């Protein structure tokens, strides 16, 4: 197939970059796209276009009901081109088409509808004040867009994570400059077509492509015209961005890495627990920040759970994304596979691989891809690097425990704090343990299920702030408290 050309989008028009790089398919190693990389000048043009859009013109003057209607038209626009989005996401990531349909593109539609609802219904914080000396006043917090928002996102759920930030930013009246991952540029560009078709005024949605350091990511985060940065990606990149924005004291919202624990008590419904655990470990080839990488299992049911997980790993079918039998995609790149294989080697040296551990031979052109076996490890200590560091692949370490107190301590013994899952039929224990998790979300008998109005984010190295529902509203607006003496 001839590689597509993916360009940036600035002030309502597609633009060339200062250089072009190749996007490589993780399925077979072929070139899927020629991507226009934004240099400093192109990034500057995007930020200026966004500034004009928020300061004056049709976007700045648009009423809330019109903005809400526009967000709903964007959702419809994605639905109308649903299969184009699926094809673009699959070409970049290699994920099974079914996953792109059921998760990535569906959630993009839901994100726009969710934040349209929020913008339509949100009220003002107001307080009636009476002082001891008898003065009375009405205080109300009038919310304004924060301004130009830089949106920097990773490659694992490209459109889902991008729209999770772009939808609330636009719902609050901001203009955005989006920097998608260099690995997954395509759906951000396609979304630009939908935005234009829905009637979004020029400059409200801009896309710059490129890498992080010394490329579009750095040029954007160091640009003095950016009023806020919302970022999803690795914790170390979050640190670099914090340093970049420090001179301007620019607000940040960070959704970063995780080393998520699941806890299986002996009273769990084990069939359901093993099915849920397998999904939480292997979904999207383990490339979801919420994926479980540490599984603590009460000793009496340890062997049953290990065997169940190994069977589920062995039953996964890697293959072409359009084959309905495929339920496991490749990793995003050969480079990422080297990193994950390094953890497999360390786990093999110090523990026992009960499933996987290598690279599958799929034959033909697929052997040029970034395929890897889903893997289950036992026999590692809590201090092992495969138990402490984020791997971001289809792998978990399974570790035995004896008591509730012990497992709470061990599960929380991490500098990350994104997600946790508790599997038990004892509801009181489920609530008790979930509440004690030092994590942004703690599931009981489920995984990756949540209301989009609820807070999403992490403790420690897993991030700064929360997004979702009115939590997003707080990040994407600045209030002026108006105090009127009565
Ligand atoms: P990454 O941090 O390498 O890259 C993310 C984005 O940041 C990309 O667009 C990249 O080009 C850009 N970038 C890199 N360096 C930069 C810099 N110095 N300045 C500005 N931009 C820069 O992450 P990744 O490898 O694309 O994604 C995987 C990571 O993302 C994992 O750690 C995963 O846990 C995390 N993640 C977290 C969440 C969450 O919600 N907490 C969600 C998805 C992914
Ligand atoms: O579902 C979401 O809203 C979200 N932010 C998910 C993050 C997944 C990480 O890879």
Write a concise keyword list for the protein shown above.
alpha/beta; Aldehyde Dehydrogenase, Chain A, domain 1; Aldehyde Dehydrogenase, Chain A, domain 2; 2 domains; seven-stranded mixed sheet; 16 helices; 23% strand
Cα shape? globular
Q: Using only CA atoms, what is the Rg?
A: 23 Å
Give the count of structural domains.
Answer: 2
Q: Could you tell me the strand content as a percent range?
A: 15-25%
CATH class of the largest domain: Alpha Beta
Ligands, ions, cofactors: nicotinamide-adenine-dinucleotide, (2E,4E)-2-amino-6-oxohexa-2,4-dienoic acid
CATH topology of the largest domain: Aldehyde Dehydrogenase, Chain A, domain 1
Helix percent band: 25-40%
By CATH, the superfamily of the largest domain comes out as Aldehyde Dehydrogenase, Chain A, domain 1
The CATH architecture category of the largest domain equals 3-Layer(aba) Sandwich
Number of helices: 16
Q: Order of strands across the biggest sheet?
A: 15-16-17-14-13-18-19
């Amino acid at each position: 197939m001839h590689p597509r050309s993916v360009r940036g989008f600035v002030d309502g028009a597609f633009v060339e970059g200062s250089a072009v790089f190749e996007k490589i398919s993780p399925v077979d190693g072929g070139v899927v796209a020629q991507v226009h990389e934004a240099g400093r000048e192109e990034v500057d043009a995007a930020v200026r276009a966004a500034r004009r859009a928020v300061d004056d013109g049709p976007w700045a003057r648009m009423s809330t009901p019109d903005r809400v209607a526009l967000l709903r038209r964007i959702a419809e626009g994605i639905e109308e081109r649903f299969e184009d989005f699926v094809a673009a996401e699959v070409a970049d990531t290699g994920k099974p088409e079914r996953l792109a349909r059921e998760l990535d593109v569906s959630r993009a539609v839901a994100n726009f509808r969710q934040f349209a609802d929020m913008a339509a219904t949100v009220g003002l914080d107001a307080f009636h004040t009476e002082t001891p000396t008898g003065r009375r006043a009405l205080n109300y917090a009038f919310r304004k867009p924060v301004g130009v928002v830089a949106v920097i996102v990773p490659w694992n759920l490209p459109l889902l994570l991008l729209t999770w930030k772009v939808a609330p930013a636009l719902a609050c009246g901001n203009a955005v400059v989006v920097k998608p991952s260099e690995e997954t540029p395509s759906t951000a560009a396609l979304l630009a077509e939908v935005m234009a078709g829905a009637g979004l005024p020029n400059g409200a949605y801009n896309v710059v492509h490129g890498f992080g350091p010394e490329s579009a990511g750095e040029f954007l985060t160091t640009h003095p015209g950016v009023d806020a940065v919302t970022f999803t990606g690795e914790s170390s990149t979050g640190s670099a961005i914090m340093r970049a924005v420090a001179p301007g004291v620019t607000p940040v919202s960070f959704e970063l890495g995780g080393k998520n624990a699941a806890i299986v008590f002996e009273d769990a419904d084990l069939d359901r627990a093993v099915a849920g655990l397998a999904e939480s470990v292997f979904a999207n080839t383990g490339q979801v920040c919420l994926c479980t990488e540490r599984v603590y299992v009460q000793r009496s049911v340890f062997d049953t759970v290990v065997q169940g997980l190994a069977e589920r790993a062995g039953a996964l079918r890697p293959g072409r994304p359009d084959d309905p039998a495929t339920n496991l995609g490749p990793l995003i790149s050969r480079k990422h596979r080297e990193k994950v294989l390094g953890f497999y080697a360390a786990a093999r040296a110090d523990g026992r691989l009960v499933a996987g551990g290598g690279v599958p031979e799929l034959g033909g052109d697929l052997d040029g891809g970034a395929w890897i076996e889903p893997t289950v490890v036992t026999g590692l200590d809590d201090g092992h690097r495969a138990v402490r560091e984020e791997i971001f692949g289809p792998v978990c370490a399974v570790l035995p425990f004896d008591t509730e107190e012990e497992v709470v301590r061990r599960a929380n013994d991490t500098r990350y704090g994104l997600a946790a899952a508790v599997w038990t039929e004892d509801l009181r224990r489920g609530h008790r343990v979930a509440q004690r998790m030092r994590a942004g979300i703690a599931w009981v008998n489920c995984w990756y299920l949540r209301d989009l109005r609820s807070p999403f984010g992490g403790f420690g190295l897993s991030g700064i702030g929360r997004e979702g529902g009115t939590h997003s509203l707080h990040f994407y607006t600045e209030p002026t408290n108006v105090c009127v003496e009565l």
